[in-house]
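Q: what sequence does this backbone want?
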């Protein structure tokens, strides 16, 4: 199990006043028997800087792997200065706040440029994001770039786009998050995806194990429970098994459903199997 901590995305676990909801992420982890929690530090659609959490010390000391997801709207690839520049600053702030929780990494989407832009400019904007942060000592923890489901000018939608991005970022130590729903939507072959990605990045740091409500190649990002979607459940289990890294569920459902999915994964990924 050491190579396969399993958990679930829990939102922020805070109310509007920054107080813990129902005991916060650690209470949710205990309820689900999860080894990992993935959380937001702010509203995922907000440009607000993260504030210290009331459970910071507990998260840092807990025997639970913590992953932080950056806000969805961050797009440091953008050619729009009003989006890219504040996004760079906010990315650094989230990385610092995530490190204070003892998180293993900060998940961030690859972003995109406009249809009229050259994708190479977006790749260079990513390189500059790391280069500028290096002047201040670098990011406080690893950035884990996640593949995305759609968008012709997305930085991490197609494998060849990921290759261009990694050619620019490899020396900065960027990590990679493989989202199975996004990969399916982008038309990737899930039977070979772990080897395909590792051939480009040399690593997979985290798997977002999600089924899809839509056919392969749809470019639609609509997650489904592990056993109730277009992707065969055994294929999803094979991906998690081959990746050999922490797994986070971002599947829809209630606590009972998520607990069942975690139990299914734990049995499927156990060394005895």
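A:
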């Amino acid at each position: 199990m050491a190579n396969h901590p399993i958990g679930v995305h829990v939102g922020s676990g805070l109310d509007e006043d920054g107080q813990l909801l129902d005991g916060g992420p650690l209470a949710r982890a205990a309820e689900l028997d999860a080894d990992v929690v993935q959380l937001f530090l702010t509203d995922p659609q907000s440009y607000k800087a993260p504030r210290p959490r009331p459970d910071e010390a507990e998260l840092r000391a807990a025997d639970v792997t913590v992953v932080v997801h950056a806000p969805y709207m961050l797009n440091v690839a953008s050619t729009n200065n009003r989006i890219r520049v504040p996004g760079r600053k906010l990315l650094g702030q989230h990385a610092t706040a995530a490190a204070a929780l003892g998180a293993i990494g900060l998940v961030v989407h690859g972003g995109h440029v406009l249809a009229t832009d050259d994708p190479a400019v977006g790749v260079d904007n990513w390189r500059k994001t790391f280069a500028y942060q290096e002047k201040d000592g670098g990011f406080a923890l690893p950035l884990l770039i996640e593949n995305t489901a759609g968008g012709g000018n997305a930085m991490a939608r197609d494998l060849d786009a990921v290759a261009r991005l990694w050619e620019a970022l490899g020396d900065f130590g960027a990590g990679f998050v493989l989202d199975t729903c996004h990969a399916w939507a982008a038309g990737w072959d899930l039977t070979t995806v772990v080897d395909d990605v590792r051939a480009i990045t040399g690593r997979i740091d985290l798997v977002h194990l999600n089924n899809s409500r839509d056919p392969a190649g749809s470019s639609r990002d609509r997650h489904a429970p592990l056993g109730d979607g277009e992707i065969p459940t055994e294929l999803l289990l094979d991906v998690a098994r081959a990746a050999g890294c922490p797994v986070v569920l971002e599947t829809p459902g209630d606590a009972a459903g998520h607990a069942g999915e975690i139990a299914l994964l734990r049995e499927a990924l156990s060394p005895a199997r």
